[in-house]
Structures are given as structure tokens and as C-alpha cells.
């Protein structure tokens, strides 16, 4: 749509460009036709965009908004999967109950722990990798595709491989440790070790994805910034710290938010980390995340109301994180603005 | 949302895998009544050629089945479909662990099979029949198989540890008392080959012991009694002893490490209902052939079994009832046992040559027909409660697994098992 002069790309105006508003003589056939066409054109311009976005909103309504509201409604009831239409009003009982539920707090702790262990190194690594890929490299496309390969792998397939790596008796990692004379590590039963192992799966899957996002943002950084920096004698590391990172700030924030959402909803990796073992996250619930706890309550224990309450707690948690992120962004913009004006004044 | 999507994906994945298997056997369905059968795990109707035989007897009928591998995925799906009254197959299987809940909460959604043509109540064990029967008399499921338990043992490991290997003598070692089973285990441990445990898991021991008692988690009035039931305490104590005495291989049943342990032969005994034989053979492979044998368990118990029900919403109710009755009739159950090892829930089948003369080549030609018939006849009438599965799984997978894998003391582990059960059952 970037060609000029074509009627298709005429700017959408309220008036339409064709006929003058005042006229004394009756319109000719040609003029009538032109007017009709112009009216049709106006309507087209006005309503087509809505028609184009409508499917999204219909799907959104059916598969996101309705479940969200329905879950909210269900969370206020006592309802079992054996009779999902049979709801008994419970008020805020499901929520108040969660506050005394040690399994919920345990799941929340695990979610945070795994979330931090997986998100922080993942984003740092992605940043470093993107910086490396941003240099002129031979076969750059190959590296970029290779980076994205783990992301394209299904969770199930990846996790099954990692389960073999982290097995206690026959796992590759313990085997390698044994060859080096180190005692085998119980990757499943120890809380911290299980969190590390699950985080490894998450890191492996998502680092490439974030790398590419960073890389795209880095390539949008104006080259002359680097040129003037190197003229000023800045090393590559200094350029990275003083030019790349500040320019990437909005992108970094974006990835932090997206990764946090992903971490809060973590489900597939911990579930499949113990194939055949159910959704309890190990004998001591040592790696049961909120997602797993929700699943266990809803689909194993059949308590739909309580599962809905957990889902809503997760949603509120995300809203809270989003709010926090918004505040941080605003604060950063302000301080940035402050710094700029300060610089100008000096 | 992501969680739900992944969950649904897993379900769909399992289902479609099996669908593609069955697709090969499908023909054209022109002008025929298509009866759908929804199953979990391996019932083996198709593999044993029963569908084919039925289609030959009834040329107007075509049977299609869908299988979900694990009941823990199958059951919630069945419940949601019953609730929305859509997506149900004409015949749906129900696991014994869920039957009490289905009878209590869903019986209006199922057809009464008790009075259907071709169904003879006296064919079945009374306890099996009663499990699927509502107190008001409606029978919503016909028993397919039962799981009378024996003990499978490795002859080579027994020999190495100086224990007898003949199945009669082995049975005598522990006859009548699960305590003896643990005592023999201690003897075994003293001379056991390097890296071989007496049994696979504490959960397995618990399961075997508790399954041979009549009352477990609920009493006849439907009250939850598992905390004070001496039978539960006995089973728990024996399982905990097995774990703390180092008699277990510390595996969780039906997980990948357990499969591998079976393949590497790192435990000497495992309690085995007939369907477990297939598992052992499958995971053990060629290298363990002839090394396993089957002996009577100290006390007969029942582990597993299923029912076939016909939902009210079935589009071909009459045909579906006919098929369900036929599939679970004694003759077909005997055939199924001969082909697939599912043990009949109809004592009548035990006299057929398919069962009476059955020997299992992989298990040193053990006369499994007789061993399991004897066990089945001794199974006590069990009181089944609606949440049996949840109680049992949390006791095994939280409590006993903590002792087995994390070295937690039995008292502490019991407390956390009770806590998870309470949390799971709390409404």
C-alpha cells in the first residue's frame, strides 16, 4: 500500500473526495454513479477494518473472555467435575481457603523459584548471544535458525529428552558426573535440584526466542551511534553497555514481561518432568507449580471451583506484575527525561 | 489458558495416536450402523479379534473404537462429556477405581444393563456385579475383567539368594501372611545378587496388601474410615518396613525409571494381577524370558478391572447394549484372556479350556489360568468408595514415595499423606 497516486491508498477522510457539496443543477447519471461509488467507498473505509478484526474478537470472546468470566463465576461456587452444572454458591470461600492452603503457598513459592532460576539466566544469555550474533558473521542465518530450533520443539518431546538426561540411575548427567568421580545428584527429589533441572528445560527452549527478539532490536539501533562511540574510543564492551543496553531498554522490558507471564503459567515442563507420576510435582510436591496445582485440583481431585479460584489468583498475580512493570517503565521514562533535560541544561 | 491448552493437547495427542492405529482396520461404513467404543489403556477387544467376529455375526454393524492411554486423562474427559451430553461413544469403559463415583453421581446418564437381553447376572462374580449397581437396583456397567493378584518372581535371583524356585514351594514361603513376604525379603537381602532389591516399591507392597482386605477407605455406610482402619495401618506398616529395611528398588510404579528397572531386572518380586504380566513381558523383553515365574500371593486380592456402560445419549442404544453384553459374556471373556491376558470377571469362563489350561510361556510356562482362578475365587467382597483412587494414590505417591525416595520417617510421611488426602477431599 505504499504506491502513490492510486485511489486505493487515498487517505480515508470523512468527506470523500469526489463531488462538491453545493450544487444547483440535478446530478447527471455519471455524477450519480460517482457519488454512489464514493459512498460505498466511504462505508468500505469505515467498516472494513472492523470486519477484518471481527474474527479475532469473536474468537477472543469465545475462547478467552467467556472462559475468563465463567471461571470467575465458577470460583465463587462449590462445583465438582462430576456435575459441572450443579453449582452451589460459596462466596469467597474458595479464595479465603487458598490463603490457608499450604499446598497453594508451596506451589506459589515453587513457581517463583523456578521462574527466577529460569528467567534471569535465560535473558542474560539471550542478550549476550544476540550481541555476538549482531557482529558480522559468516552463516549468520544458520545461527539464527539454530537459535530458534529449541523453541519450535514441542514441550513434550524436549522434556522427555531432558528426563533421560536428569535420570537418577541411568541419566546421562549423573553418568558423566560418575565418570568424573562425583556422586550422583538426585535431580527429582531434591527441591533445589529439581528446580534447576526444570529451569534448564525452560532456558533451553526459550533462550533462542529471546535472542532473536534482542537481535532484531539491536539491528534497529542507529549505526552512527556506534560510529561516534568508537570515534570517542569506546571499546566493544563499553559500546554494549552504553549504547546497546540503553537502546534496548523497551525491548528488555517486553521480554521480562513475556517471560514472567510464561513463568507464572509454567505447566508442561514440571508435569512431564515426572512422566507417569501424575500432577503432584514429586512426592513432596517439591516442584509443583501453580499450573500443576490448578490441574491437580481440577482434573484429578475434580474440584472445579477451587481450580477456578487458583486460575483467578494466577490472573491477578499477572495483573499485579503488569502494573509493576508499567510503574517501572514510567519511572524509567521519567528519569530518562530528567537525565536528558539535565544534560541539555549543563 | 496455556495450561489448559497444553492439557488439551496432551489428551488430543494420546487420542489421535490410537485413532490412527484403529484407522487401518476401518473399512467403508456405507449403510452400516457404526457403534463407537471409548476405552482407556489396553482392553484388547480389537487385538483379540472380537470386533471382527462380531461384525461377521452382525453384517450390518461396524465398530469403531477410540483409546486414551491413561485413565487419569480418560476419566475427566468422560465426566465432562457426560455433563455436556456430547461427544460420548455408544459404549464407554469405566475403571473400577471410578465405578463407585460414577454409580453414585452419573447413574441417570447410563442405561440399565441389568435387565438387558443377553445379560445374565449369575455369570458374574456377585461383588463385581454389585460394584456397578446402584442401591436402587440399576446396573450401569458390565464387568469386563478383574485383577486377582499373584506374585511374580525372578527365578534366577531367587536361586542366587538360596531360595527355592519352584512355584509351589515359593508360595509356601509366604502362604497366608503378608508379614512372611517381608520376612522372606529380609532373608533374600542377605544373599541377594548385587544391585537387586526384593521388590519394586513401597507403593507396590502397600497396594498388594490393602487389595486383599475387604474394607479399605470407606465403610459400608460410605463414611471415610481410612485413618483408623487397621487394614490400612497394617498395609502401611508393612510397606514402610519394606522401604526402611532396604527391600525396595525405590521406584514409583508406571514411571520411566520403573520401566527401566524392570528391563534391567533390578528387583526380584512384584505383585501381579494378570494384566501386569503383559507389562513385565513388554518391559522385560527377550532377555528376561523364562526367568520370571508366577506364584500364589500370601492372600488373594484384586487390583484393577473395568466395566462397559452404555450412555443414555448413545445414538444406537439397542445395538450398543447388544454389543456390550456380547463383549462381556463368558465366552468372549475367555477368548480375551487367551489373547490378551485380561482375566474374566465371569467364573463360568474359568471352566473353559482357554482359561483352565492357560500357560504363559514367558513366565516359565506357569499355569496362570489356574493360579489366577484360585486367586479370583478368594478375593474378598470389597467395599468401594467414591474417592478410593485419590486416597490410594496419595498414600502411595506422596506418603510411601517420601519414605522410599526421600528417606522421610514413616510417621512424618503418614502425616503428609493424610494432609494431601484431606486437601484433595476437602470440598
Summarize the structure.
With 346 residues, chain A is mainly alpha-helical. Chain A has 12 helices and 2 strands. Chain B has helices at residues 2-23, 50-57, 71-84, 96-106, 126-131, 155-160, 167-174, 178-191, 202-210, 230-244, 256-264, 274-284, 317-327, 330-340, 353-356, 368-378, 388-406, 410-425; strands at 33-40, 61-68, 91-95, 142-148, 150-154, 197-199, 267-272, 292-296, 302-309, 343-344.
Oligomeric organization of the protein chains = heterodimer
- Shape call of chain B: globular
| End-to-end gap of chain A | 45 Å
Strand segment count of chain B: 10
**Average pLDDT, all residues of chain B:** 90
- Poorly predicted residue ranges of chain B: 1-28
Named at the architecture level, the CATH assignment of the largest domain in chain A is Orthogonal Bundle
Individual helix count of chain A: 12
**Fourth CATH level, the homologous superfamily of the largest domain in chain B:** Periplasmic binding protein-like II
CATH class of the largest domain in chain A: Mainly Alpha
Descriptors for this entry?
heterodimer; A: mainly alpha; two-stranded antiparallel sheet; disordered N terminus; B: D-Maltodextrin-Binding Protein, domain 2; 2 domains; six-stranded mixed beta sheet
